[in-house]
């Protein structure tokens, strides 16, 4: 039964297109309303409090008290783990990817808003991965603490010494301990993955090479769970992104030196890392894009406020009274609404046909959204003048996150390349179609007594 008109008058649905509104279940409508209320009353007003708490050097890498309080409250209010799709059975809250996209955009208004609901990266992708591929013992030991919000997890795939946008180049090695095959030994370097300093971080999900001589490059790698306190695992340094350390989760550079883990920590089986990675990265890429839309909507809201600020009148006019800014605001509005359609189409395609079939729509989102969001936020900063690039506004951090997502879960250049290759595969059928036009044209020339001309 579609939602009623009165249900959809709520501000949470102001930007959701009608074709999406009609696909929302009653449960989804109520959940979207709750997420909206949560963000408006609990998260956005608390943003300066969290920043103040993590600004204290001795508490920089500890989960802020306000975050712990919000996570406990969100769990009690039924706002935890909303991202898990229906296919995960009892673990899922029952939302489709399309329904969750409406929630995720609202969460994205604050970078850490999704974390209050246990819907943040990389834990969303890791939880989906573990729910889908781990055995029952692994789920109980590793998945359930993350689902309950007791621990955070990290994902470790990128390497500084290899072009790992082509993941077949991943070189960090996993070998069986020759003295005890029930143990694995890991050696290599990794980039990214949450900082080991985070007090609530529990483990890393690591993708590494276990069979380098396998003739099939897609069968050479294995995915394992590495506890953060594993001997031989060392974080070399925190990796800043555009100067931000992104505490308290952050990113790190890691060195594995004869790090030993039990073989029971292998997920799904040896040589099956690529199967796992594809199952993880599809939804993760969409989640980033969903949250980016919410973040960019907030940047746009700030631009609207700036455009109508009575205190700011260069040459006696409001910023929003200049034609260039009126057109700028219109262009940003159109871009935002267009991107939302792209992302929601990807989410709906995943619901209807599965993640694999939705690959093209997912790639569309990953290519278009981060770049466009960065451009829009840049324009919003410009409208704020010099203050727009300072800590007085969240805009610089918003822009940095959007810029980072062009690389996260695979650089957009790789996705463009994939889309382009897929399009070129269609050229043969397109040529046949145009040859048919040519033949039919010649038939029509004969029928109507028209001289044939070049027809391309």
Number of strands: 7
Secondary-structure-based class equals alpha+beta
Largest sheet: 4 strands, antiparallel
Number of domains: 4
CATH topology of the largest domain: Butyryl-CoA Dehydrogenase, subunit A, domain 3
The percent range for strand residues is: 5-15%
Can you identify the CATH superfamily of the largest domain?
Answer: Butyryl-CoA Dehydrogenase, subunit A, domain 3
CATH C-level label of the largest domain? Mainly Alpha
User: What is the topology, as strand order, of the major beta sheet?
Assistant: 2-3-7-6
Give the N-terminus to C-terminus distance in angstroms. Answer: 51 Å
Would you write up a description of this structure?
By secondary structure, this protein is of the alpha+beta class. It has 4 domains: 7-151, Butyryl-Coa Dehydrogenase, subunit A, domain 1; 153-267, Butyryl-CoA Dehydrogenase, subunit A, domain 2 (Beta Barrel); 275-424, Butyryl-CoA Dehydrogenase, subunit A, domain 3 (Up-down Bundle), CATH 1.20.140.10; 430-456. 47% of the residues lie in helices and 12% in strands. It is built from 13 helices and 7 strands. The chain has helices at residues 18-21, 26-43, 47-54, 65-76, 97-107, 123-133, 136-147, 273-307, 323-353, 359-383, 395-405, 412-424, 427-448; strands at residues 152-156, 173-177, 180-191, 201-209, 221-227, 233-238, 252-262. The strands form 2 sheets. The protein has a 4-stranded antiparallel beta sheet with strand order 2-3-7-6, with no helix packed on it. It has a 3-stranded mixed beta sheet with strand order 1-4-5. A hairpin with a 2-residue loop joins β2 (173-177) and β3 (180-191). α5 packs antiparallel against α9 and α8 packs parallel to α10 (359-383). The chain is globular and about 85 Å long. The termini are far apart. The mean pLDDT is 94. Residues 59-150 form the Acyl-CoA dehydrogenase/oxidase N-terminal domain. Residues 154-248 form the Acyl-CoA oxidase/dehydrogenase middle domain. Keywords: FAD, Flavoprotein, Oxidoreductase. GO terms for molecular function: acyl-CoA dehydrogenase activity; flavin adenine dinucleotide binding. Pfam families: Acyl-CoA_dh_1, Acyl-CoA_dh_M, Acyl-CoA_dh_N.
